[in-house]
Specification:
By secondary structure, the chain is α/β, with parallel strands linked by helices. It is built from ten helices and eight strands. The protein has one domain: Metal-dependent hydrolases (TIM Barrel, Alpha-Beta Barrel). An eight-stranded parallel sheet has the order 1-2-3-4-5-6-7-8, sandwiched between helices.
């Protein structure tokens, strides 16, 4: 399995990151993508990816950090992001996107759109997919993507939109990742959306340390990904093994990840 969105670089994992990774491997999670959310996390995510087999990094500017930064610095941050991405080591631009609550908390939607548009331009120039956050902002995101395009694809992480929003986003080349909310006992919206997603666009994610799947409690971690896979498999009419194979192939294709070598194989 591939966890396409796991904040393994966060402080919540500082005390036992190695053990978390071991539990993930034991649960069948072979690959993890760590999306850094701002310049303070770019180096850490890249270092974690360099030092840890099977871990890959994305670098982005998350809309929720914008209230903490001066709008006059936006162009400089975008330039720094592109320069860092050009050095290599990251497989995607992101986490980036739009956030409705943040628009009321100090980062107006027009500013969020401008910063996201800048990151989409970087993704186009570098030929990288994007890891997109969208919370109560799917309509302006769709309008921006329809206008600007997305030539290297991307993913709507922890998709919280309706089933009706799936087709227009899918036409733009986007994938859809589902997280812990798909497991909740009263989950209806995410499962209806999952059923509307073409199977070649389905992805799994933990979003750890957040969105802990039912029936677990407390800090989330990637070893819980099989719970999400089981819920998603039941929703779309696949057995868990087939769902894991489909989502793994989808993630490898989107992020251009090489399959892991067979156990015991040696490099020539």
């Amino acid at each position: 399995m591939i966890d396409t969105h796991c904040h393994l670089d966060k402080a919540e994992f500082d005390r036992d990151r190695t053990a978390v990774l071991e539990r993930a491997r034991d649960a069948g999670v072979e690959v993890l993508l760590v999306p850094a959310t701002g310049p303070g996390g770019w180096d850490g995510a890249l270092e974690l990816a360099r030092a840890t087999p099977g871990v890959h990094a994305g670098l982005g500017i998350h809309p929720q950090i914008l209230p903490e930064t001066d709008p006059r610095d936006d162009d400089r941050l975008l330039a720094e992001l592109e320069e860092r991405l050009r050095r290599g080591g990251a497989v995607a631009v992101g986490e980036c996107g739009l956030d409705g609550p943040t628009a009321a908390a100090g980062a107006p939607m027009d500013r969020q759109l401008a910063v996201l548009d800048g990151q989409l331009a970087i993704a186009r120039r570098l030929g990288l997919p994007v890891m997109l956050h969208a919370l109560r902002a799917h309509e302006p995101l769709l309008a921006l993507l329809e206008r600007e395009g997305l030539p290297s694809g991307g993913v709507l992480h922890s998709f919280s939109g309706s089933a009706e929003l799936v087709p227009p986003f899918a036409r733009l080349g986007l994938h859809f990742a589902f997280a812990g909310p798909a497991t909740y006992p009263r989950a209806k919206k995410p499962l209806a959306a999952a059923r509307a997603v073409p199977r070649e666009r389905l992805l799994l994610e933990s979003d750890a340390p957040d969105q802990t799947p039912w029936p677990r409690h407390g800090r989330n971690e990637p070893s819980y990904l099989p719970l999400i896979a089981q819920a998603l498999a039941a929703a779309v009419g696949l057995d868990a093994g087939d769902l894991e194979a489909v989502t793994t192939a989808n993630a490898r294709r989107l992020f251009r990840l090489e399959p892991a070598p067979p156990a015991g194989s040696a490099r020539s």
